[in-house]
Amino acid sequence: MAPLRDRLPRLLVAIRSLLFWSLVYGYCGLCASFYLLKLLWSIGTGPTQTFRRAARDHPPAGLNDPSLGTHCYVRIKDSGLRFHYVAAGERGKPLMLLLHGFPEFWYSWRYQLREFKSNYRVVALDLRGYGETDAPLHRENYKLDCLITDIKDILDFLGYSKCVLIGHDWGGMIAWLIAICYPEMVMKLIVLNFPHPNVFTEYILRHPAQLFKSSYYYFFQIPWFPEFMFSINDFKALRHLFTGHSTGTGRKGRPLTTEELEAYIYVFSQPGALSGPINHYRNIFSYLPLKHPMVITPTLLLWGEKDAFMEAEMAEVTKIYVQNYFRLTILSEASHWLQQEQPDIVNKLIWTFLKEETRKKD
């Protein structure tokens, strides 16, 4: 009996792992079937429109707006990758590092670049594989360990040992991981619309509604087909994310202008521009949940109540993983695209959090 008792914990772990990966690949297959039916329907109802793509030879003027900051590039020695970022504010001021989500790039922080440059050196980064940053070809180059190291190397290059770290969506995932792995690098952590990583993985297994909302995570595990589906109908799926009734911006805040939306379409319509961003998701299930998940950094979590992709209950649960000052603010009627849709409110909440924490330390 003793050998059986000794083997039982390992057996339970193996069974749980088997069930988990069965769920991942089973749901992946369901998502693939659903999107294949959508493709066939699109081809059947409008084959010419399905494969139409407008020519976009020049970037929209907003991407080169000097009021947003200066476009800069850095090549990291260890990885050899060239990173693009936009910087505003004087060198030498405290660093505020901004990490965007999917499908975004540095431009999603345009309101924050203008707002915080008075007190900070504000840097909005194109993450690995996005925008003008290099995009390695293989999915192994997008493991979370690589993404975390990228941020550490960028910080070193900029000449800083610590920063105010702000992340939205997938950038929020990376921001949480940086705060966990390198707490000495993060003075303040601010995350928009992404829960603590362990909350996400635990919640999704227990709540079918969140599993459905996160279906794109599973769909993205399939090679090349997700990139193809995003590109058909002149990037209709990408447009829908920002403008759709259930998913888009602008219910009670600012909708994207035609020029702002075209900036996103222009960036992601470049050759190969979708593979890097989607590769970010193709390693997530082998990394989470975290074995050492606690956060010791003062943390602000901002959440849009009408987020079409993340249920607000995950925001409430996140506080159990933060062993420091934690503030959660849920904005009613706000969507997933918080910093673009409600920039004035978001900026005010960030200012309050930064100043309030400073006063606590004095």
UniProtKB/TrEMBL annotation:
<dbReference type="Pfam" id="PF00561">
    <property type="entry name" value="Abhydrolase_1"/>
</dbReference>
<dbReference type="InterPro" id="IPR029058">
    <property type="entry name" value="AB_hydrolase_fold"/>
</dbReference>
<dbReference type="InterPro" id="IPR000073">
    <property type="entry name" value="AB_hydrolase_1"/>
</dbReference>
<dbReference type="GO" id="GO:0016787">
    <property type="term" value="F:hydrolase activity"/>
</dbReference>
<keyword id="KW-0378">Hydrolase</keyword>
<comment type="similarity">
    <text>Belongs to the AB hydrolase superfamily. Epoxide hydrolase family.</text>
</comment>
<protein>
    <submittedName>
        <fullName>Epoxide hydrolase 4</fullName>
    </submittedName>
</protein>
<dbReference type="GO" id="GO:0004301">
    <property type="term" value="F:epoxide hydrolase activity"/>
</dbReference>
<dbReference type="InterPro" id="IPR000639">
    <property type="entry name" value="Epox_hydrolase-like"/>
</dbReference>
<feature type="domain" description="AB hydrolase-1">
    <location>
        <begin position="94"/>
        <end position="339"/>
    </location>
</feature>
